[in-house]
Amino acid sequence: MTDGSTKATLLHSGRIVTPGGVLDDGWVTIDGSRITGVGGRSDTPRNPAHAVDLGGRWLLPGFVDLHMHGGGGNDVTASPDAMAAAVAFHRRHGTTRTLVSLVAAPLADLERQLGWIADLATADEQVVGAHLEGPFLAEARCGAQNPQYLRHPEPGEFARLAAAARGRLRSVTLAPELPGALDLVLDVLAAGAVAAIGHTDATYAQAQAAIARGATLATHLFNGMRPMHHREPGVVGAALAADLACEVINDGIHVHPAITTMVARSPGRLVLVTDAIDAAGMGDGDVQLGGQPVVVRDGQARLADSGSLAGSTLTMDAAVRRAVLESGLSIGAASAAASANPARVLGQGAKFGAIALGLDADLVVLDDRLAVEEVLLAGQWQDRPERNPVGTDKLADWSRPLTERALPSRSDM
Ligand SMILES: [Zn+2]
Fold first, then answer.
1. 135: preceding bond cis by omega (within 30 degrees)
2. Whether the Cβ atoms of residue 137 and residue 144 lie closer than 8 Å to each other
3. Cβ–Cβ under 8 Å, residues 155 and 187
4. How far is 169 from 176, CA to CA, in rounded Å?
5. What does the alpha-carbon distance between residue 268 and residue 243 come to, in Å, rounded to a whole number?
6. Would you call 388 helix, strand, or coil by DSSP?
């Protein structure tokens, strides 16, 4: 599907998911790396240099994953090659923009890994930058983070990490209740990154204080934080009340599909992330996360010792499918949660994350069952995606009333 030239390409006869709605039998033109036109059937351009018939398939903006630790057997902290391979694995599942997430580790290790991310971001347009998920987290809610490497915020240490990222630090997850955390929010913003609240036992008031300082994202809402209580709503209550952007790991395991439905009720709020570890795409087995043994069974990744969920085996295409099939989102809402909303969190909504004039031509072609068929990154067709059966027949029957449903015991996708 590549013509090798830089002349405009017309993708036509697709179901185009745009910010304004779905264009049935719509078209998109691409010139170089940009989208140069979008429209419906009546005004399809004639005599394009190159035409691609989408044959009624879906065309969505490429997915933007703010939270990714690995995939396809590659842990991003293992080596620069493994990091690049994990990014490429998720690209085959429709992700065209990625933050590379680092778990708590000794500072010198984090500095080295941040350097790899900065190098990779220079070489690979898909890599937007780094997400530091730690080390400034609460031990009480550390989940699969190694408690041995957690630290209280210290400006000098943060400055070292920010410097190591060479301008590519994009997001920092922190626990607002730690001493110095509210000042850290300001340092994070000054470094040009997003301050995210997560792996925290913060009360509502503590979370609110971080939001007042400028935190704009909740890291995997509900996971790694105290449950919402009606008299102490905690981070969940503070994030929802303030209409913060909220990451959700929509794998049918980390949260009930109805949580995804509820978070999506406010437009722009839901941010689908994978939080994927190296086991994504690899089936069951024994792996490691941050130096701790992890067992993957039936698609669930758990610490061998405590049984804590240790990231996911999710890919963004599966997160989108589940949002539509299990959580009842429109394809437009699911697409926004996977692309436009995370792009906006990064302050990049005018560059990528939607099918609109002038934006980067990051596109994903999906079949009727929302399986990835083709991926374009900045106008370039990517390696043929792995066929990833949708498995809708294996999904739980979410048409039954909520009370009759059990959470799926396995992640089939
Ligand atoms: Zn994570």
1. yes
2. no
3. yes
4. 19
5. 9
6. coil
* Identity of residue 268: G
374 in the same domain as 328: no
Distance 54 CA to ligand 1 centre (A): 35
The C-alpha R_g of the chain, in whole angstroms, comes to 20
Domain of 360 in residue numbering reads as: 9-61+353-392
The C-alpha atoms of residue 4 and residue 340 are separated, in whole angstroms, by 29
Please name every residue paired with 300 in a beta bridge, in sequence order, or none if there are none.
297
Contact predicate 173/196, CB 8 Å: yes
Q: What is the pTM of this model?
A: 0.91
Same domain, 218 and 88: yes
Listed residue (350, 66, 319, 349) closest to 195, CA to CA: 66
Ligand 1 centroid vs 4 CA: distance in angstroms? 38
Cα(288) to centroid of ligand 1, in Å? 13
Q: How far is the CA of 102 from the centre of ligand 1 (A)?
A: 8
> Do 156 and 264 fall into the same domain?
yes
Catalytic residue among 251, 275, 317, 360: 275
Token pair for 355: 């099918």
Ligand 1 centre distance from Cα of residue 103 (Å): 7
Annotation marks residue 368 as catalytic: no
pLDDT one-digit tens code per residue, 86-139: 999 999 999 999 999 999 999 999 999 999 999 999 999 999 999 999 899 999
- Evaluate whether residue 412 is within a structural domain: no
* pLDDT per residue as tens digits for the range 168-191: 999 999 999 999 999 999 999 999
Domains: count for the chain: 2
Find the 69 Cα to ligand 1 centroid distance in Å: 7
Residue 380: CATH number of its domain: 2.30.40.10
